[in-house]
Model the fold of this input.
Amino acid sequence: MRKVHTVVAMLLVLLLTAVSVNTVRASGYEQQQALIDRATITFKSFVSDPNMTWFRDHLSTAKGLLIVPQLLKGAFIFGAEGGTGVLIARDQYTGKWSQPAFYTIASVSFGLQAGAQSSQIILMIMTDSGLDALLSTSIKLGADVSIAAGPYGAGAKAETVDILAFARSKGLFGGVSIEGAIITPKDSWNIAYYRKNVRPVDIIIRGIVYNPYSEKLIKAVTEACMASKKPAPAAPTTTPAPATAPEPDAPVEVGS
Done:
């Protein structure tokens, strides 16, 4: 049993290391900024995806977004998946979006499985309790907070849950399921990015730190939310043609 745990742990480490290495190579920036840049690209790609109509139209109702640009999953009997993402949240009074906080997501599984998969994930936090859970300590999706797959298409309906998961993936696995995954604040990255000993609640709620290089992400989310609030264009109406006035009767001569 100890060997089994060791194999699973090593697999998780390799997956998370691959995410970090790919992030650095992709941009040439330091790891934290590279991840934020990729999160911005991921968010924009979701908004422009014609299959993400519900996601796009309901952004203004979300309490927060956890954007994971790359969630890697690999398996051969034992399965493991992991990735790093950023959490931003909307102020309930001002509507402004917070600075990003860094998180990791990881899970393990056992069973008859084989293959590899790379996914882009956005978790849409729909309730205050869902956001509060993320701001505390590590949480387990499906146990500490309720989660469901995000609806697709304009006419789709969402379940009443704490978190809706939207995914775009490619690989050998048929679908994406992150129920049971553990989400944990990446404290070392938060401290490195803001150069201050901060926790997610300091970044998201108290707003005591700021990094100007996150503005592209905040701007992209803000603009998408504003677009989702715009009312649908009214159906064109046809103005009826004015009624033709009847011609006046010919004057009648009155004899004397």
User: Anything to note?
Assistant: The two ends are 127 Å apart (CA to CA). Residues 2-227 form one domain. Confidence is low (pLDDT under 50) at residues 1-29, 75-79, 171-175, 250-256.
